[in-house]
Specification:
This protein has a single domain (about 110-375), classed as Beta Barrel (Porin). Helices cover about 0% and strands about 45% of the residues. It has one helix at about 45-50, and strands at about 110-125, 130, 140-150, 155-160, 165-170, 180, 180-190, 195-205, 225-240, 245-255, 260-265, 275-280, 285-295, 300-310, 315-320, 325-330, 330-345, 350-360, 365-375. Strands 1-3-4-7-8-9-10-13-14-17-18-19 form a twelve-stranded antiparallel β-barrel. Strand 17 and strand 18 form a beta hairpin. The longest helix is centred in the N-terminal third of the chain and has 6 residues, at about 45-50. The model is unreliable at about 1-80 (pLDDT under 50). Keywords: Signal. This is Transporter.
Length: about 375
């Protein structure tokens, strides 16, 4: 019997939209060497594999008997182990915030353009109290970012996230359209199957965004330094009534590797006339998401995650105030909830709408972020 027949097709899904879940689970041949059953392949591979294999009876001597043939009864009766219950077919787009595993097929391309609004809704102080006075949450903003991922091998993918932003309000001039720092990341899936899976991330943030000599602070969209990106991600699927539920867990860190020269108004909070250096501290996020199938096409998604940033420092001199400046920002963080609704036209094309809501935090502004995205895989 071919090796592929021993494996079961359970679930294949891409980040923010991937392959649909296959409902075809192939029965393992009940050999005396106890061949494994229940390993996973993506749904498209399962459909190509053809009809479900029929269970095969095995004699004590290891020979097989065709259906309907009379065979010698084995000395010792061998009970066939029942196969795992198949999951129903389910299509996913992916939740609003969760990352995804490396793509399962070489040459595969996944793209997902997002549009997100930022609606200021106060700020959390160092004790976690929310200040809702007007202007406390900063400026309004519109951000457009487009996830792009390419499968180099069946386990290794490269990921890009070009981002544009525009901000205005809060008694400041509009920022104009700005290109942010550019993330570039390699993703390697340790497991041979796509779900369940474990993926490692490693890459860099390239310093492409404006960060110094700004007309006003709202124009700062970069850090001016290279930053390492690394993290780990896992996902798996479970039955959910008559549908499937996908669960993702992750942790990610961004670690700036150097300080940068600062002049005048910068994204580090300095003012006109300042000259010195700034050093951004590490920052990151960790959390989990669930996607609950309502129908094959409709899915409810929910992200629960925490973002954090360590202290950033500034050292220098302001010629206008004639003061030496040596300051640190302190740690900041926020707990966020992100409900969303997914609709998938096919197993390869879908969309999602939802909103990110910061529910608690400290030393950070609070911005409610409605979002919408469309996903496609080729």
């Amino acid at each position: 019997m071919k090796k592929s027949v021993r494996y079961a097709a359970l679930l294949s899904s891409l980040f923010a939209g991937t392959y649909s879940v296959s409902a075809n689970l192939y029965a393992a041949d009940a050999t005396t060497v106890a061949a494994n059953a229940g390993s996973q392949t993506d749904d498209k591979s399962a459909k190509k594999a053809g009809k479900t294999a029929q269970p095969v009876k095995v004699s004590a001597t290891g020979g097989t008997a065709s259906q309907g043939a009379v065979t010698q009864q084995p000395v010792v009766s061998i009970a066939e182990k029942p196969g795992p219950k198949p999951l129903p077919e389910q299509w996913y787009t992916g939740s609003l915030y969760s990352p995804s595993p490396a793509l399962p097929v070489p040459g595969m391309i996944a793209v997902e353009p997002y549009v997100a609004a930022g609606l200021p809704a106060g700020a959390f102080d160092s004790n976690g109290h929310l200040n809702t006075r007007k202007g406390a949450g900063g400026q309004h903003s519109i951000t457009q970012f487009s996830l792009a991922k390419y499968g180099i091998t069946k386990n290794l993918s490269i990921y890009l996230l070009p981002t544009y932003s525009y901000s205005w309000g809060n008694h400041s001039k509009p920022s104009g359209l700005k290109f942010n720092d550019l993330p570039v990341e390699f993703q390697y899936r340790l497991t041979p199957h796509y779900t369940p899976s474990i993926t490692l991330y490693f890459g860099v943030n390239t310093p492409t965004g404006d960060y110094k000599n700004l007309a006003n602070a709202s124009e700062g969209v970069g850090q001016g330094v290279w930053a390492l990106r690394y993290g780990v991600h896992s996902q798996f699927a479970l039955p959910f009534f008559k549908h499937a539920m996908r669960v993702r867990l992750w942790a990610q860190v961004r670690h700036p590797v150097a300080s940068t020269k600062l002049h005048n108004i910068t994204s580090y909070g300095t003012e006109k006339g300042f000259t010195g250096r700034g050093h951004a501290g590490p920052y990151g996020n960790e959390g989990g998401s669930v996607e609950l199938g309502i129908t094959k096409k409709w899915v409810f998604a929910l992200d629960l995650y925490h973002t954090w940033a360590t202290s950033s420092s500034v050292n220098g001199y302001n010629v206008y105030s004639k003061k030496y400046i040596n300051s640190r920002t302190g740690w900041s963080g926020a707990f966020n909830v992100g409900p969303g609704i997914e609709y998938n036209w096919t197993s390869s094309i879908g969309g999602i709408v939802g909103v990110i809501l910061p529910v608690a935090g400290h030393n950070t502004s609070r911005s409610i972020s409605p979002q919408a995205a469309v996903f496609a895989v080729f």
